[in-house]
Amino acid sequence: MRRSTISVITICLAIGLMAMSPSIGWAQDATINVAPNVLVISSQGTKVTIHSNIPAGTVNVSTLELSIDGAGSLIPIATFADARGQLVAKFDMVEVKGFVTVPSTVLTLAGIYFDGGSFSASDVIEVKE
Asked: How far, in Å, CA of 64 to CA of 17, rounded?
């Protein structure tokens, strides 16, 4: 009886650890929110910020890429962890404005976890002249 209890506990722990693995647990559940959600091309704003639900310490930030409407961009990315430990990425708004289109644009943040798994998450923002 005791041996079977230990086996069940061991299996449960293994399943729990696999579920917490970024490549398994986060790859399909990664979400982002872009701020501002309405980008006005004539505005004087300076930054576009992407907030995610991805634990910041699990991502190799040197692999992060921003795609705008499906096209990759070479816009420099500044990253940090928010108060909840989740990944936040900031981009120069002037550079982002060079890629967006009216009336809306899809921004996609993609990257690779330290364990080798990857993620890709998108958000649609409204774009006005």
From this structure: 25
Please name the helix (run of DSSP H) or strand (run of DSSP E) that holds residue 97, with its range, or none: helix 93-97
How many whole angstroms separate alpha carbon 100 and alpha carbon 32?
17
| CA 95/CA 73 separation, integer angstroms | 9
Domain count, the chain: 1
Tokens of 61: 């930030």
What is the rounded CA–CA span in Å between residue 65 and residue 52? 14
CATH code assigned at 124 = 2.60.40.10
Q: What is the tens place of the pLDDT at every residue in 77-109?
A: 999 999 999 999 999 999 999 999 999 999 999
Residue range of the domain that includes 86: 2-128
Q: Which of 97, 110, 104 is nearest to 50 (CA)?
A: 110
Structure confidence by residue, pLDDT tens digits, 26-66: 445 999 999 999 999 999 999 999 999 999 999 999 999 99
Amino acid (one-letter) located at 65: E
pTM of the model: 0.78
